[in-house]
Every structure is written in C-alpha cells, then in structure tokens.
Amino acid sequence: MDKQELVIESSPSVQATRPGTEATSSSNPATAIVDTGCQPFSITPDQFMGLIDPKSPENLVALGGIDGVIAALHTDKARGLSTDSSSLTSVVADGEKAPSHQNSTSSITISDREQFYARNVLPKTKAKSIFQLMWMALQEKILILLLVAAIVSVGLGIYEDFGMEHKDEILYDKNYEPYVAEPKKISWVEGVAIFVAIMIVILVGSVNDYQKEAQFRKLNAKKEDREVKALRNGETVLVSVFDVVVGDVLHLEPGDVIAADGIFLGGHNLKSDESAMTGESDAVKKVTLEEFLRLQEMEAASYAAHGGTDPAHQLHGVDPFIISGSKILEGVGTYVVTGVGINSFHGKTMMSLRTEAEDTPLQAKLNDLAEKIAKLGSMAAALMLVIQIIRYFVTFKKNGVTPPSAEIVQAMVRIIISAVTVIVVAVPEGLPLAVTLALAFATTRMLQDNNLVRVLAACETMGNATTICSDKTGTLTQNRMTVVAGTIGLNSRFIADVAEGDVNQRANIPINKNAILTSQINDNIPSSVVHLLHEAIAVNSSVFESEDDKGNTSFIGSKTEVALLEFSRNVNGPDYRVLRETTPAVHLYPFSSERKSMATIVQMGPKKFRLHAKGASEIIMKRCTKILQISNSESKAESSTPEVTELELTSELENHVNKTIISYATQSLRTIGIAYRDFESWPPAGVELNSDGEVPFSAVAEGDMTLISVVGIEDPLRDGVPEAVLSCQRAGVFVRMVTGDNIMTAKSIATQCGIYTQGGIIMEGPKFRALSTEEMDAVIPRLQVLARSSPDDKKILVGRLKALGEIVAVTGDGTNDGPALKMSDVGFSMGIAGTEVAKEASSIILMDDNFSSIVKAILWGRTVNDAVKKFLQFQLTVNVTAVVLTLITGVISDEQKPVLSAVQLLWVNLIMDTLAALALATDPPTMELLDRQPEPRTAPLINFTMWRMILGQAVLQLIITFVLKYAGMDIFNYNELPAHIASNTAEIQKAYLSIKTQELDSMVFNTFVFLQIFNEVNCRRLDNRLNILQGVTKNTFFMVIFVIMLVFQVVIVQFGGAAFKVLPLTGMQWLICVLLGLFSIPWGAMIRLIPESIFGGVRDWVNNTAAQKNELPNFESYPVHADLARANSMPNSVRSGRTNSIAGSASNVYPGAMNPAVQKVRSDLSVFRSIRGGRLSTDSDRSGHALNAGTMVPALVATSVGAPGWAPRSARGTPTHSSSQIDVSNSSRRSSVAGSRQNTAPPAASVNTPANHTSGSDSTLNEKK
C-alpha cells in the first residue's frame, strides 16, 4: 500500500500579536494567560501539559481557545512558523508560494522556542564510563575470588621476601660455574602477575562493552530519526522530528506516529489510536475546539432529555487534543504543537519506562550454556582442591618433617590459586561477549547494506528464516511508476510515446491496434472528456511538488498519484494547483487498503458537487453503472467533433472492460480505474449520516458512478530482484508475493521475479480467507502468490505459516500491515514508502525498500549465528583441554603444581575469551552461506559436526601436552648429561637437569598456546570443507589479532621470566613448538574427512533429528508433502546440482512429485522399505513400525487408485492451466473437496492437496468394500 500524502489548508488564522505587546494590547479572551515577565511566551510548558494530561477542553477555553494559543505561541494557522527556510526541503502547497514578508513571529527564533519549551529529544541516558564498566566487570565472583587469592599471594610473597631471613644461595651461570648470590626477592611476582592478568581481562572486556554501547547509541539515534511535514513560512516542508518545536503546524496522515503533543486545527475524518497512551482501545476522532463544544452541547442536551443526572457526564471518543506517541488510523489534518520532548505526554511516559536493554534469545541461550560449563569447571576445581590439600598434608606427615607455618600458608594459597584458575579458565565468559561483538559488528555493517536493525534478536532469527512474504510495489519493483497505456471511455485507447528512432513494442499488442499516442490525446479526444480526466487526477490526489537544493522540482507523494500527475502534465493538462483552487474540496476519503480506493468530493458550482474516485480498476468498475462512450470520428467528417455519451454498463460491456484490464495486467501493468459521480448537494439528500456525523463512503462511492478511464501503470522490476529471489530459494527460503494488485498483474510480475514457478499456486485474498484451516494448511506449501489481498489476509497467512512451524519474514509498508509485521518472526518495513506505524511494528527497516537487501539480512543473520558457533567450537576445545590438563597434572605432580601456572592459564583465558571472540565474530558474510538450508527451531546450539571437532582437537592437544610433559626429557635427550656436566659435581648435574626441566615446561606452555592459536584458524569453518583460509584476507580483525597473539607469545616466553615461570627458548625449540601447534590444522582436516554417517544414531541424537520410537511415522511430514512441495515450487535452476538440500534430493528422487496419486503411493510405500522378504530390516528407526505397517497392505492399492491424481491429464487440467501450475483465483471454496468426495475429477482450477487426497481415498475405499 502506498503512503498517501495529503495537505489540508486551514481556515485563515487570527493575526498574532507582536512580542512584548501580547499581555496588554490583546483583546483575546485568554484570561488564564499568565504574565511571564520578559519571557517571549505567555503559556508555560506545565500549562500546556495540563491540557493533555488529563485532557481538559475547559482549560483550553480558559486560555482563549485555539486563537489564544496561536497568539501566545506567535505562530499562524495558515502559514506556520516564520523562519529562515534556506535549510529546509520545500514542498510547494496549493497555489503559488506566499509572498515573503516580515510578520510578528519573525523576531522569535527556533532557539528561543527550544530554550523555553525544550527540544523534541529525550535526554540521553548517561553512558557508563570506562571505569564504571571496569568496576561492573570486577563484580564477577570468580574474579573477586581470584583477586583475593592474588592479594594473599602478594602479601605472603612480600612477607617471605622481606620479613624472613634468607641465606645466600649457590647458583650456576651458563657455563655451570658456581657463584654465591643473594636470594632473589621475587616471591611477590606471581601475585602481581595475577593482578596484571585480571586487569587485562577486565580492561579488554570493558573497552569492548564501551565500544559496543557507543555503536548501539549511534544506531538508536538513526532508528528514531524521521521526517515530518510542517508548515513554515507558508510552505509545506520536511523537517526532522528532532527539529519540531512548539508552535509548529504539522500535517497528519494515515500511518503517522505523532511526534509531539498539540491541538487539532482542522482536517477530514481524522481518527487516532491512543491505546498505547491511554489504554482505550477505541479510535478517538479529532475535531476542532469549536466543533467539540458544539458536540458537547448536543450531547448534554440529549443526555438531559433522556433523564440523565450525572453532572460529570462527558462526551467520549471525540476531542481536539493530539497526543504524542499515538497513531493516525485514518483521515488527514493539521495541528499546532504545544509540547515536545520531556514536556510531551510520550516523553514523560518514555522517561519513566527507561530500562536496560534485554538479552537477545541467542545471548540468553549462551548465558545458560556458560552457567552449565562453569558448574562443571567448578566441580573439577573442587575435586582438584580436595585432592591436592590431602596429598600435601599426607606428604609432609609421611616425611615426618613439618615445614614452617608461613610455608604451609604459601602452599595452601598456591593450591587455592591453581583451583580458582581452573574455574576462571572453565567459565566461558567470552560467550556473551562473542554474540555481543557479532551483533554490534553485524548491525553496523547491515546499516551500510540498507538494513536498519531495530530489534537485535531479528539479526539472529533472520538467518534461519524459512519463508518470506514480500510486498510487490517498491520492494520487488522500482516504485518508479509511469502511465504507459490506457483506455478513455469504452474504446479510446492510447499508449505512451517512445524516443525518436525507437520501436514502440506496445503498438504490436492486439488490444493497442488502433491506439493513439499520448501526445495525440488532445487532438483525438473531446476537450470536455480530457478536462474531466485532468480534473479527476488533480483534485483526487495528495501529491505536491518538491524543490531540492539544486532548484529541481519533482512530485512528492504516492508513486501511483505521481505517475498520474506526470501523465496529466505530459499531455499538456492544466496546472494541478489551478484545478484544485477552482474546485475546492469539501470532503475526502483517503486511500484505504480495505476498500482499495480513495475519493474526493469537490464543489463545482452553487448546486453541483462532484465525487472523483480512483482505485483498483476491477473494483472501481464494479461500482460503476455507466461508462463514457466516445464516438469514432473516422466514420464522420474529419472536421466533426467526436460525440460523448454515457452508456449503461451492461454485463456485455463489463466483459469488454474486463478484457482491457486483463490485457494490461498480462503486460505487468498496474491498472487504475478513474470514475466520477455528480450530486446536487452535500451531504446528498436522503443519505443517512454515520455516528460521526459524516457521509459514509459506502453510501456515495460504492455505486452509481460513471467510468472515465482505465490506465495501465508500469512499475519495472528492481535490478537484481530475480537474482535475489533465486538466492533466497538457493538458501532454502520460500518466497511468496503478497500484493493488493489484481491476479493477472501479480502473476505476471511474480513470474518475472521467479517467484511464481511450475507447481505453484496463485490465489486471491478473499478466496484464501474463505478456506477452512485444513484447506489453508494444504494449499500453503505451494502458495506462491496471494493477489488482491488485504492486510488481514497477510496476517492470516503469517499466522498459519507459523503454526506450521515456519520461521516467517514479512515486508510491509502500510499502517494496517502492523499486525502482520508484529506477528512475524522478522518484520521488514519500508524506509521510504513505509508509514511510521509499520516501522514501529517492524524489526528491521529496509532503508532502500529493496528486496535484495533482505538477502543481505539473511546473509548477516547466518553470519552472526556462525560467528557465535565458531567461537563456541574454539572455546569449548580450550575449556575441555585446559581443565583436564590442569586437573590431571596437578594431582599427579609431587609438588601439587599443574603443568600450566596460574598466570599462564590467565593468558590462555585472555586469548580464548576476548581476542578469539573479536577475531571470529568479525568474519564477513560469503555467498556460500546461501548454499545450505535454514536450521529448524529445534536445532541444537552445538551440532554433531562441532562436537566432533571439539573432542577431536581436545584429544590431540591432551596427547601432545602429556607426551611433552612426561616423555619430553627422554624424547629430546635432556636426561643425558653432556660430558662436561657428567664429570662435574652432583650439584651441577642437578642444576643442569633443573634448567632443562624448566625449558621443557616452557615448551609445553608454548606448544599449548600455539595449539590454540592454530586451532582458531581451524575453527573458521563449521562444515566439513577443507579450505579454512577462505576469505581470511577480508577479515582484517582476524589477521591483526593473529599477529598480536604471536607477538605477545614471543615476548612472554623470551622475556616473561619469573612472572610467567618460563625460560627463553632456542630457535630449534621454537620450531618444535610451532610445528606441534601447526599440527592441529592437518588434524582438523583428517577429522573433517571422517564420514559422519558411520556415527549413525549418535549423530541423529546430537542433532535432535532421530525418529521417535514406538510411534507411527508422520506421513504428512515426509518430503513428498510439504518439503517436496517447496522443492517443486523452486525453479529447476535451483533444484539441479544442489546437495544436502530438500530441493536437491526431491528433484532427483521424486521426479514429477506434484502428481497426487504418485505422492500417495510413495507415502504409503515408505513404510514398507523396512520390510524385506517378510522380515524386518535392520534399520532401527523403522523396526518398531513393521507390525503396524502390515495392517495397511489390503488397503494400499485401493487408496492409491482412489487418489484424484489417477484421473487423465485432460480431466485434471486445461490447456491454459497445467496440473502442475494452477491458478485458483476462480475456484470455489469447496469445489475440490466436493469433487473428490463424489469420486469425480476436480475442476481445472481446483487444488490437489493432501487434504483432498484423503477425502477421495476414503470414499473410494468405502465403495470397494
């Protein structure tokens, strides 16, 4: 639905008084206006709020009514504010621009208004500083525990270094020459190193959070900004909602979300939905204060006449107040702004409701997983703590020597630090960070791809969408409409001119055989008819001209109306503004998606009123009883003027017009009908007014009209739409077109897009709405186009799709699309053509209204999900390895020291929690992501492929680390003493072995880190493909972080010394460590090459796809039904060559699957695959069903033959509608079902569905019996 742009001129305003004189010279009866001294405004924000909350017409009357408010605000009802308009986008209103002259409002600037009444923005929530974020990060219990242990360690270290006596030690240099040295006072270093590690972890996490908040603030500012139409300097201009000030006169249109509080000035049939603000569900009609007071008097008189005595009785459902945050349902009008920002109703409400952002579903799921992993890590740490404490006390008791108490405390602290470090490593606090980073990165980049994400969860959900219900106009097409053909009256056809030298292809179409060119209309059509057509186009329209910064003018408004006005201008019609001035509008009915039309009533003379209507051509035609007939001038003298008559629109002529409409529709043209009707008075005599005192639309615009013309409007497909639809189908996403156009136009456009394909169904909204739930569920798997649909039809379709388990994305632009957008899993609103209601109901705004942007949203959604899974795969590998390694080596060690120290583990924790999250969360999307099917809702977070890689890499890392730790001395011959050492003293030999042991421990640490670094590269792929470096050069973050980790590791090992308890390594030792770490990449390739099929039921159990035991199979869920229907609805180009997809398997295994009889046989036979030679097969999934299957043998053939698919092809289809491509637009609701029950072939237009098969089969079986 196109947004209607209507601007209504208000009545002339009262002349505003000059600043400084209003308090004394005004004769206005605004007795309640207070003296504000030197302030430029005499009504305060609090007084204005007293009008709105609660609504108080009495206070408004006390302020002098609307004229008093206008005077106090120094504004003008007809001209709006007077400002410097050089920076505004001008929209020329009816008539010429008002002359520029100085008036009373010019001395008050916009800044004066903002200073006194505030800006129309809410105060920004105070952003948390980096130090606040660091403090919040430090609140984690694990880090607090580790911090306490570090403090104790530092305290004991200082005491040991400076509070105890130390004897000189005999040490050895590189040549193993002894020397006497004072003991190094470095016992405090480990505690300080833990402090530093904790600070790095906190700082990195806090910086990431800080940057993430800044990004989301920027996105939110973009999300909330929009433009509204205001009157300034007598012109209609577009201003940012943030720049609206008190005193502005704003226009209201259907679909607008009101930007500020105000008072209604005038308009037509304006109704507002204030349920979100006041809780009242009924629409509230807006009237001027004078009208309200009149209605109130009438209500009071009526109430008293019926014996009412309640003095507090009020008029309900009508008021003159416009409340910010509410939504315009219908009608148009203008209002003066009285409250903005924090001084508005919506602003005060929003200030009281400010809350912290909630976690997305993926974040919540990951938080839950992190808690479970932390519990397992805590159990391992507790086990390690108990075992080490027992071993420590047993050891020195066994030796009979009790060490000093300080040494015991130091040992206990060391054991506790080791256990706490295990918990730190086990807790995957990087998981929430990973999804946050992925979402922040994706939403920022999606904005560059014209997707403004309003709801973060939509980013994740879109990646697994299974179906898209798309609008046509502006989404699939360019929304650049042009009138290219038309028929005036009954037979006077015209086609658009083409450039000189070009061939006019439309002239070759049979219906255009005698058509004239657009430029020849004035010469061939009577001037009275041409003027009538121009008048109908100009007055029944809300389009105006816009002037850009370069001085170029263009029409702004509904694209359909723009096309009609441009057509009128191209045939040298009178200026639309002149026509609007000479025939003033007295009433209008804005476009409504329910009635598919709009109408305007204008006054032609003292006793002549004319209704001009336009809308969907077939609907307008049904409302007409007459049609213009222009006599064929060829049969008369050349100088004669063609005669114009009105013919009764008989059924024969209706068929003639219908053929015209169908001809245009098959050319992919949008057809618009234009009609009129004359009245002697308004309201017409004998017409009963509705409850609002208005003339009902149905009473004047749904009959007795005269058809003027049917025009065909071309809206070309957007570039890349067929490719985008094909990409969606590649990705397993079923694309449906839901449009208000007639069925022929919809079918033509859908075919061009690739949406309507062999095996698909096209249906009209009313027909679809009339189906039962069972019939809908049978039709929906093949429903590709829903034409002539209303927003309710779209909502019903979305509801049924969700009930069938689909993950649904919907596009919408109109106010009435809100319910469908809200109901869908992901709602896309149009950033250009969409109303504010639609945008508010949506999850993502398409900034360019382009369907291709939806494909980008799918890509980014899958990228976010993959980024989190990549990180999860990497981190769980480190979790498993580090916890097992620390636990086993700590328990085995005689000194109760694990192979990796606390500081070393904290460095590993930093790698896997923060740096890896940043590296793996920033991979850009690739087109390969479209080569797989969406994941169902029940899919596990970690699938079998991921578990296989996690456990496989953990096994490799444990083997390498254990072999290095416990066999490294022998492997590298470090136990063999060199000759010059072997001939030396025992102390020197001991020192040599001690140094080599430390070097080996350093190699173990170094190798372990390199195993993680190279496994990070390995984790860039989640599938079984071997190219793990694909696209790595496009991810700058990954490459930079990879280098940073390498550099830091070199610095730590070569210069970390006592802090990290490492010794510098030689070149050969470095080579060994790097090669061992690098081995994780070929090992990952080996794991990927292992066929998953050999794991059988384990894989199905992990992936949650195993069949339920002891239950009959659900035949309706087999591929021959819904999935296969989807596969056959895809183009052959998609189905061919696909692997691991529904479409690929279906097209290969079930050719011609749309034959319902074949479907029935295959569905039944699928059970018998598990029975061979009267015995059960070894397929465990089927073994439980064999006895049940045996009972089906007698009925198998009978039920299959009874299926309607056995009917001859000629009986099931017509030459124009094959059985695999069906148009059900004209089928009755029950025709196919009734046909099958009577054991007859269904009509050509019926839908062969599983539901129909069942009924047909049952009746046949009963007859056989």
From TrEMBL:
Gene3D superfamilies per record: Calcium-transporting ATPase, cytoplasmic domain N, Calcium-transporting ATPase, cytoplasmic transduction domain A, Calcium-transporting ATPase, transmembrane domain, HAD superfamily/HAD-like
Segments passing through the bilayer: 142-159, 186-207, 373-394, 414-442, 871-893, 941-964, 1037-1056, 1068-1090
Subcellular location: Membrane; Vacuole membrane
Biological process (GO), any one: intracellular calcium ion homeostasis
Biased composition (Polar residues): 10-30, 1238-1265
Any GO MF annotation of the entry: metal ion binding
EC category: translocase
Keywords: ATP-binding, Calcium, Calcium transport, Ion transport, Magnesium, Membrane, Metal-binding, Nucleotide-binding, Translocase, Transmembrane, Transmembrane helix, Transport, Vacuole
Superkingdom in the source lineage: Eukaryota
Residue ranges with Low complexity bias: 1218-1237
UniProt catalytic activity: Ca(2+)(in) + ATP + H2O = Ca(2+)(out) + ADP + phosphate + H(+)
Any one Pfam family match given in the protein's UniProt record, by short name: Cation_ATPase_C
NCBIfam families noted in UniProt: ATPase-IIB_Ca, ATPase_P-type
Protein name: Calcium-transporting ATPase
Originating species: Lunasporangiospora selenospora
